[in-house]
Amino acid sequence: MKTLPAYTMRFLLYGVLAAPLLLFGLYAFSEHWFFPAFLPKDWTTAPFIRIVADAQTGKSLATSLGVAFLSSLLSLLVAFPAARTLGLQKFRGRQLAWLIFFLPMVVPPLAVGMGLNILFMRLGLAGSLFGVVLSHLVPTIPYTIFTLAGVFAGYDKNFEHQARVLGATQLRVFFNITLRLILPGLVVAGLFAFLISWSQYLLTLLIGSGQVLTLPLLLFSAISGGNPTSIAALALLFVLPPVLVIAASARYLNQHGNTVREQY
Length: 264
Known about the structure:
Blueprint: H1 6-28, E1 30-31, E2 42-43, H2 46-53, H3 55-88, H4 94-106, H5 109-123, H6 129-153, H7 158-165, H8 170-198, H9 202-208, H10 215-225, H11 228-263
Antiparallel strand pairs: 1-2
């Protein structure tokens, strides 16, 4: 049996990935599309514009963007020292530290969410935006630590030592040497954190206590309503920010790679 050419396999893969988005687009920009019609007969942008212009949609979108951005930033700040230590140093208990950091990934999310809900209720953080942001650190920090630790595993500290010998302060070494060398890794780690936080549903529902409405919560609410047009429009809106973030990150990494190649 002959294997399919590479371009055929690639076309099939792209087709499988694009099929849900295509289906959402057909539902979001049409009306009265019922089986057995192959394509909608009436095309219109009114349902999509109505969903996007809705005040609740705009508020949930802004909340999701704010939570994802803050979670990414805090995740990088918390993960940076841990990743640097794990990536550069060999010490007793290093494997135990890895286990502790990755424990939230193997514990059932419902158990983690219920535990955080009880803790945050006692701390007065349940039902608050800041509480939701903190809860999102639980699934995002392991990924940021893993990504940054891999970056620091190939990092040469001699650049920092040379800069200190030449009289640079610790702060200047950090911004001019360390940060510049690991910046692509920071972008990738921040991208992972953003995508994980953006798609969080369970933790937002439990910690937010119904008072913090994000786009995933609104989308699940629309699914329970059973209106395919509203579901499709919200699904497209839900997919758009991650696609833009990934495209911007890929563009930056590509430009950074070209700059490095030109220098060397």
